[in-house]
């Protein structure tokens, strides 16, 4: 089984290739296909001793950039590394794809060129964020694939998030929170109120409405919201963490004694920086498409790419796609039953 | 001119009274009315030497709690400190109100018992947040008063935020950002796209879509969004700042050298804590109602109450209500003109 890696229009394409080379070295069961400019790939690979029997290259000189209109580019740029990677992904012996390219293009490619899982209205992007509790992470679904949502989309997001956290993170009975403007059952906007009622009816561990203040508390395994809200939540986490660290740095530089004190705290600072750099620990899975896709950050370094490749393996070994299909069947069964009883 | 202070159902009612006493001592031009249990108020005031000629007490033994349904409580609990404070606020010689009580009740009271400014569809709650730049703050409007919004509401929020930042913070030409899932003009959900087009047409400094990552960068003076999104943004800021500080504390406690280093950094830590404790610097104005209302945090201490009282004065002296009325007239004129031309 192979994993296809699209170099795409990312910030550091060398790092993507390096990540592939290191993955091949690290695990002898890894087989990769790299999609991108063959000359460039070979040049970077020449620095590494890799087993070429476990590596294929798809030569694709075209790239889909962040300036392209994703839906159009996916149809027209058929020679691009992403389109060629997705076409490779359709093959039975390819288990999944990693791309560090344009998020919009990966979404469009996954949804329109690869295809949705039957019964899923809208695939969603589900980054995995750190929490206050060491070793515990939380899945935020959706974080931007769907900015206008109907209630059924969020119900499916919840079920996909549960499948992911069970399969990949080994959480037995994931705690699902619905992002809301208060914890009370009656809080929420029109969308979230309808979703609340429908999640209550499902055989999942739905703990109710939650406030964004607790997003990273470790109390939740899955946070459900529409992609507009999720995007705001995700970016606010990033912006605030960066701001606090920057303020701290400025305050330290202003005082000689603080500067002296900081010398003894490098490890403590590094630990936080490392924790908040969640993008280095893997990518955001695009859940709800027919095969496994992990979107790595555009600024990924080699270790982030390695982490994303490992993530694909875990998703595949855990049989995630089938688990999502089972989850969708559960939703259909519960809602059909409710309709029959009402 | 007087300011009425509602003790309400807050965490530390003594602190609210103390804040009033200190305000009276600090500024001899301050005249206050305190609404709440008279015996309790007098007991707390007995600790202070205050000029009773500048202080009235409205005896109100009933409180509206966070458990009450706001719209119902505002109609039925006519003996409550909040309802009595709002009734006092209607008088011509009262310039504004401060309340540390239930947010929902303050909103309902302001909107239904006091009344909206003509032309405003929905009043909004607009907390003032710190930014990376010292002395620069940003107004987030709405942060929870309106969870389901139509485009015209957000257009009015923008105009009210501009009036506030001009009047109270002396910002000449406030930079307005529309909270979005990307900075590109075409990004957004159905609501924000419609708002984008309408803000473009107004004679305000609308700088376009912004990402929540930059909310506290200091690049914006007013952030516009619906109350559901604003609430998520605000609470994510709070939660993330708290998380980073907690992680830092944990890391420090784990290491003897970091503990030693931290001794030299108390000031630097305090500076950040102080910056992020924005609620101690005043309350969130409820904009769009007929008179000035500032909602203080439920856990306000005396200095937060003093800050809120000062905020009311600034809003009054800056003629905020009239400025908002002028802003609404501008929107009406621009949109009428556009309709005529289309």
Topology:
Two copies of one chain form a homodimer.
Chain A: E1 2-6, H1 13-26, E2 32-36, H2 38-45, E3 55-59, H3 70-76, H4 81-89, E4 94-99, H5 103-114, E5 124-125, E6 128-130, E7 137-141, H6 151-169, E8 175-180, H7 190-200, E9 205-211, E10 222-224, H8 227-253, H9 256-262, H10 266-276, E11 284-287, E12 292-295, H11 302-317, H12 320-341
What is this structure, in a nutshell?
2 copies of one chain form a homodimer. The first copy, chain A, is of the alpha/beta class and 342 residues long.
Describe the structure.
The structure is a homodimer of 342-residue chains. By secondary structure, chain A is α/β, with parallel strands linked by helices. Chain A is 48% helix and 16% strand. In chain A, the strands form two sheets. In chain A, strands 3-2-1-4-12-11-5 form a seven-stranded mixed beta sheet, with helices on both faces. In chain A, strands 6-7-10-8-9 form a five-stranded mixed beta sheet, with helices on both faces. In chain A, helix 1 (13-26) packs across helix 11 and helix 4 crosses helix 5 (103-114). Chain A is globular. The termini of chain A are far apart. The interface between A and B is large, with 59 and 59 residues.
List keywords for this structure.
homodimer; 342 residues; alpha/beta; five-stranded mixed sheet; 12 helices; 48% helix
* Overall average pLDDT of chain A: 94
Helix/sheet category of chain A:
alpha/beta
Describe the largest sheet of chain A.
7 strands, mixed
Note poorly predicted spans of chain A: none
Assembly level? homodimer
DSSP helix count of chain A?
A: 12
Helix-strand pattern of chain A, N to C?
EHEHEHHEHEEEHEHEEHHHEEHH
> What is the helical fraction of chain A, as a range of percent?
40-55%
Order of strands in the sheet with the most strands of chain A?
A: 3-2-1-4-12-11-5
Percent strand of chain A: 15-25%
Q: Name the overall outline of chain A.
A: globular
Largest chain interface and its two residue counts? A-B, 59 and 59 residues
DSSP E strands of chain A, number: 12
CA(first)-CA(last) distance of chain A: 47 Å
Gyration radius over CA of chain A: 21 Å
């Amino acid at each position: 089984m192979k994993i296809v890696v699209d170099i795409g229009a990312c910030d550091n394409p060398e790092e993507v290739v390096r990540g592939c080379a290191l993955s091949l070295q690290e695990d002898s069961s890894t087989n990769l296909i790299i999609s991108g400019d063959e000359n460039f790939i070979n040049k970077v690979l020449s620095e590494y001793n890799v087993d070429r029997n476990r590596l294929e290259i798809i030569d694709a000189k075209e790239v889909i950039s962040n300036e392209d209109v994703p839906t159009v580019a996916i149809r027209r740029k058929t020679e691009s590394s992403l389109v060629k990677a997705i076409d490779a992904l359709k093959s039975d012996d390819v288990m999944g794809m990693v791309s560090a390219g344009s998020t919009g293009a990966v979404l469009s490619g996954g949804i329109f060129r690869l295809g949705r899982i039957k019964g899923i209205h809208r695939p969603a992007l589900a980054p995995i964020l750190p929490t206050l509790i060491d070793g515990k992470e939380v899945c935020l679904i959706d974080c931007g694939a769907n900015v206008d949502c109907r209630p059924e989309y969020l119900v499916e997001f919840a079920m996909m998030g549960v499948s992911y956290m069970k399969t990949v993170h080994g959480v037995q009975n994931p705690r699902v929170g619905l992002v809301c403007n208060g914890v009370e059952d009656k809080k929420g906007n029109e969308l979230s109120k309808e979703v609340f009622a429908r999640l209550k009816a499902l055989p999942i561990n739905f703990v109710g409405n939650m406030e964004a203040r607790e997003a990273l508390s470790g109390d939740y395994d899955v946070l459900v919201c529409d992609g507009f809200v999720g995007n705001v939540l995700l970016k606010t986490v990033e912006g605030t963490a960066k701001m606090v660290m920057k303020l701290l740095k400025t305050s330290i530089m202003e005082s000689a004694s603080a500067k002296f004190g900081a010398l003894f705290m490098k490890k403590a600072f590094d630990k936080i920086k490392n924790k908040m750099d969640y993008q280095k620990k893997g990518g955001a899975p695009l859940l709800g498409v027919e095969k496994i896709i992990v979107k790595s950050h555009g600024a990924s370094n080699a270790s982030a790419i390695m982490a994303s490749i490992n993530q694909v393996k875990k998703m595949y070994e855990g049989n995630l796609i089938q688990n999502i299909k089972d989850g969708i069947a559960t939703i259909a069964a519960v809602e059909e039953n409710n309709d029959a009883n009402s």
